[in-house]
Amino acid sequence: MSISFEVIHKDIMGRTGKLKVGDKTAKTPLLLPVINPHIQIIKPEEMEKLGVEALITNAYIFSKSEEFRERALNEGLHNILNFSGIIMTDSGAFQQSVYGDVSFTNTETVQFQRAIGSEIIVPMDIATSPDRDHDEADAELSVTDKRIREALTVIDDGHLAAPVQGGIHEDLRLKAAESVRDMGVVFCPVGAVVPLMENYRYRDLVRVVMAAKEGLSPSSCIHLFGAGHPSMFALATAMGCDVFDSAAYALYAREGRYMTTRGSLKLDELNELPCACDVCRKHTAEELKKSPERERLLALHNLYVTLAEISTIRQAILDGTLWELVDERCRSHPLLLDGYRELLKYRERLEESDNAVKRRFFYRGSESCQRTEVLRYHRMAERFEAGDISLIKISGTVPSDLPTFDSVFLFRPPFGPYPPELSETFPVGQTEIPGWDDDMVKSGLKGVYELIRSNPETEFYICMNGEFEDIAELCLKDFEERIRYV
C-alpha cells in the first residue's frame, strides 16, 4: 500500500488532511519529531502517548551504528524505537552536505531504508546551499533528479519521497517541482531550507516555497524539511506546507533555550514559566533550572509547545482564521514580518485556493488590506449594478435635498462599497475594525473605484464628512467628471 493524501479543509493555501502511509493514517498539518537512536532525550513511546503520530530518523546514523545497524535489519525500526506510528527516514544527504562523501550510494540508502522498515523513504538528494550560483545549483539539481528516478526503480510501491531542490533560485525550484509532479510522487519535501531559517531569511524562504508550490500537484503532501520552530509554522502552512520535522525541541533544550510561539528564551534568564504545559505547571523556573533532569524536561516543554502550535493551526484552518494567526505569529520578529509581507505579494495565487466565506475578518494593520478576502471583494464590486444615479455613503449625514437614487451603497473599509442588503453577509458583516486609518480607507476606495469603473453611465454622489475627502479625490480622480461630493 502506497502513500496517499486527502485534503479535508482549506484556508489560504493551508490544508488539514489525512496522510495515509500504508495502513496508517496521520492528521495534517503534521509534526515529525526527529529521533537519534543514540540520544533519545524523550523516548518515542512517550511521544506517542502525547499524540505524536509520526517521527523521522536518520538512515545513515543507523547504517553506521555498531549498536543499532544489525538490530534494525533484524527487528525493524518500529520494534527498536517502540513506536507504532509512521516512521520516515532521511537518507544521509544532510551528513553528505556537511561532511562530504559519506560512502553511501543512492541505491544503497534506499535499499537499507526499505530493509529496516521505513515507511517514507528519501533518496540521496543533494542539499543545495543558498550560496550556490545558478549553474552550480542546476548541476546539483540534475544529480538529485537522476537519483530520484533511480530510486523509483528500487522503491516502486509509492513509499518514496521526492525532494524538491534548487537552492534559492526560483526557476530551479519550479523546474524541480514540475519534474517531481510528472513522476507522480505524492510526498514531496522542500529541501535545503534550514540555512534560510537559521539566518532569518524568511523572505527568501517564501519565494522558494511558493516557487515549489507552483510546480507541484495540488494533491501533493508538502514536507518543509528542517522547519522546527513553531513561530514560523503558521506562515509555512499558509503557503501550503503540510508536514514539519523538528530536532529543535531537543537541540534547544541542550542549549538551555525555552521555546514559545513568539521565539525562544534563555531558561537561565526566566523568573516565571509562561506556559500551561505539564512541565511548567509542575515546576517553578528555579526548580527547572536546578533539576537534574533539566535538559529532558526542557525538551519535553519544547515538544509540548510545538505540538500545541500544530493543533492551533489546524483549528485556525477549520475556523477560517489562519490569516489572523499568521499575522500574530509573524509580528514576533521583524524578519518574520518580512516573510509575511513577501507572502502577501502572492495574494492573487493565494486567492485561487482560499475560501470565499469565512467566520470573521479582523483588521490588524496595513497588511490586512492585502489579504485574499479584500482582493476578492474588489473583484466582486465590479458586479454591482448602480443605475443612472447612485449614492455611496462613506461617512457623515446625507443631505435632504439630493435627488432620488436608483441605488444606494454603504461603505466598509478595507473592502469598499456594499448594498445594504449585504450588510449581514461575509465579509462586511463579519469584519471587526478599529477607527479608520488612511490605509484601510485607501483600500476601501479601490472597491469604490471598481464600482464606478464598471458602471460607466452612472452619475455618482459620494457622501463623506471631509476627513478623508482629499484621499478620495486622489484615489478617484479618474472619474471626477462623474462624481459629486456632498
Automatic annotation (TrEMBL):
tRNA-guanine(15) transglycosylase-like domain sequence ranges: 14-334
Catalytic activity entry: guanosine(15) in tRNA + 7-cyano-7-carbaguanine = 7-cyano-7-carbaguanosine(15) in tRNA + guanine
One Pfam family named in its UniProt record: TGT
Name of the top EC class for this enzyme: transferase
Keyword terms of this UniProt record: Glycosyltransferase, Metal-binding, Transferase, tRNA processing, Zinc
Active-site residues (renumbered): 90
Superkingdom as given in the UniProt entry: Archaea
Keyword Thylakoid: no
Pathway: tRNA modification; archaeosine-tRNA biosynthesis
Protein's UniProt keywords contain tRNA processing: yes
GO annotation, biological process: tRNA wobble guanine modification
Gene3D superfamilies cross-referenced by the UniProt entry: Queuine tRNA-ribosyltransferase-like
Cofactor(s) in the UniProt record: Zn(2+)
InterPro entries attached to this UniProt entry: ArchSynthase1/Queuine_TRR, TGT-like_sf, TgtA, tRNA_ribo_trans-like
Enzyme Commission numbers on file: 2.4.2.48
Residues that bind substrate: 125, 192
Residues given in the record as Zn(2+) binding sites: 275, 277, 280
Protein purpose: Exchanges the guanine residue with 7-cyano-7-deazaguanine (preQ0) at position 15 in the dihydrouridine loop (D-loop) of archaeal tRNAs.
Protein name: tRNA-guanine(15) transglycosylase
Species whose genome carries this gene: Methanoplanus limicola DSM 2279
